[in-house]
Amino acid sequence: YTQAVFSCQFSDSAGYVGFANLPNQVHRKSVKKGFEFTLMVVGESGLGKSTLINSLFLTDLYPERYIPGAAEKIERTVQIEASTVEIEERGVKLRLTVVDTPGYGDAINSQDCFKTIIQYIDNQFERYLHDESGLNRRHIIDNRVHCCFYFISPFGHGLKPLDVEFMKALHGKVNIVPVIAKADTLTLKERERLKRRVLDEISEHGIRIYQLPDADSDEDEEFKEQTRASIPFAVIGSNQLIEVKGKKIRGRLYPWGVVEVENPEHNDFLKLRTMLVTHMQDLQEVTQDLHYENFRSERLKRTGK
Amino acid sequence: LPTRAGSSLEPEEHSMEPPAMPEEEEVPLTVAPGPAGCQLFGYVGIEAVLDQMKIKTMKTGFEFNIMVVGQSGLGKSTMVNTLFKSKVSRKSSQPSQEERVPKTVQLQSITHVIEEKGVKMKLTVTDTPGFGDQINNENCWDPIIKYINEQYERYLREEILITRKRKIPDTRVHGCVYFVPPTGHWLRPLDLEFMRRLSKIVNVVPVIAKADTLTLEERAEFKQRVRTGPEGLLECPMCPQPWLKHHVPQIQEDLKTHAISVYPQEDFDQDPEDRALNNRIREKIPFAVVGADQEHQVNGKRVLGRKTKWGIIEVENPAHCEFPLLRDLLIRSHLQDLKDITHNVHYESYRVRRLNESNRP
Predict the structure, then answer these.
(1) pLDDT digits (tens, 9 = 90+) for A225-248
(2) d(Cα A242, Cα B111) in Å, to the nearest integer?
(3) pTM (predicted TM-score)
(4) Which residue spans within A63-126 are E strands per DSSP?
(5) Position B333 in a domain
(6) Residue in B137, B182, B185 closest to A108 by CB
(7) CA atoms within 13 A on the CB side of A216
(8) Is residue B134 within 8 angstroms of chain A, CB to CB?
């Protein structure tokens, strides 16, 4: 994300108006206001979603996790759990909400498990629509889901029927970023094969996942291409620090070696994190301009009848 | 000692005689005071029967039928290839193989004859593609139960004929290896349901598949999860027992409480020696396994393993995974036991049920 350069050159030469400084003002205002971002994570239990979220944001969003046993899972339907944290980095405030969906895909019959999720997303749109149409629009809180990380199991041969159904039902409501979880289970060849399979199946079923916008003139074209070519990202998460060559790094310790989370040769974690933080703005825009507007026009058409 | 056809000393043909025979086969060579101790005054030559049994076995060969069950992609075919060190199963990840997930559970059996040091084994591997892969997996175990019972039925029909074949072809499933995904959390409802139903009719050996995704601590935790239950007592929907009472640790505890007795079953331990050996195995179940059919160079040796950027996972190294334990259980130590229990317990209970059914008016 390009850091706006604070140009303090208010030249008094003729012809210079000064609105070139506008982006700086916008930048300064947003820094003051802070950002809101809502990220939803969906996937079967045991795919490392919570560990990955903790690794991404370097916080412990799930301090006292309670992992339900099999018998408990039988009774449960999908739950929606939202946790919010305020993260600050170099003066920039981020109000991050992570929406977790425990119970997804756990039951023997998972036919209806994403209905709850669709309902949640629609409810947030509904609330925003209501606030937007209201009289006092000063403090509209944006709880709409800006991005959905969908966790694909690395143990299969591609997408499962449930994965396909979910993505088809939700690609018109939220930005879907497919992620291959627990990537340390795959060798390099297996990873490439799985990525290709997933992409083939996605295009075969006409699923629209989040597309990275084309690189701006001041962005690194090659880096953008590399990132785009790595989708779906194959990631590993870890909350443990392991000592490797004298340094403490995040990783997983196995009898046969150490998997380093932030090593680009081991997995795509860094790419995912970079993509997320440099595209928060774009994800919000696409949610506003595309998904929300779709919802809004559908809604208004219905009530208009 | 003359051996007649159909004699009680033949390991392959199981006649309908009462189970006094196994004891004769397993008596140790030392003259120990047995149940009805009898001192021998000199060398008779009884031990020569062992050699005769061995030669006979080598001539007739073994039949061994295993079934592998689990969601697609858990490495079942690779595991079978690793177990028998040959390309017994075609992996569904190969480009030539049909890769679509079938809409219902299908059963596919492949038979190979493999030979080692003169001993021939007719190995049949039954695969179950489609199991647990659908969105709605209710009753996905039905085709499997049907298949197993069909094999018992086939054997029963041969057995009750008036003129019977000398050697009844044995297609009964001797062991069912169930692949549990390495989530690290707990058994899923599907896992519990399947194992509960099938451990009643066949030997079920659960394994944690693709265990190279779990660190050693996570593996131990998965096997024995200690967790404080919710406040207050809740009823377990699967059995009317108060929650906290049994949902505290271990996969093994949970299996026991839901009356899932996986192989080796405690009820069938024949003597204290057996029990001690089997207890050691039971402590480790389910085995955390990794399969591989490619060789790599490690410290100057060729080993079967998986090569990654951060190291080579050696499949036969007990420090890396428990594949050697699974292999020893299935092939080196308990193969005959698996067949015996299938024949003496599971098949017998099927037979009793069937004969009672046909007796009822």
Answers:
(1) 888 888 899 999 888 888 888 888
(2) 47
(3) 0.76
(4) 81-89, 92-100
(5) yes
(6) B137
(7) 7
(8) yes
